[in-house]
Amino acid sequence: MPPADDIETRLTTVERTVAQLRQQLALTTSDATAARTLAAGADHDVSEVRAELRAHTQALNALRETQLEQSHKIVELGREMREGFATLATGMAQITALLTKAGETS
Questions:
Q1: DSSP letters for 4-47
Q2: Is the pTM of this model over 0.85?
Q3: Which of 6, 22, 52, 103 is a plausible cystine mate for 2, CB 3.0–4.6 Å?
Q4: Is the pLDDT of residue 47 over 80?
């Protein structure tokens, strides 16, 4: 049988080790709780960023549609303007011809 002092020393060592393990467990539990809280916050932040990204994408798509519509309108206005200038040029040519003819007969 081991001496009583040896058992007391071993028991003291075991108790000290158990106390250290309890402290480590408390720290680990606290760290795990903090990590879960941070992870939940990060997940929430990621969700918000994704929602904003979807909103921005929708806004850009709407802007693209508007730009395409405006581009088509500009092309149409350009065509109408060319037709108008062609009509104006034809009218000016007719007026010039009439004025020239009237000047010759006078």
A1: HHHHHHHHHHHHHHHHHHHHHHHHHHHHHHHHHHHHHHHHHHHH
A2: no
A3: 6
A4: yes
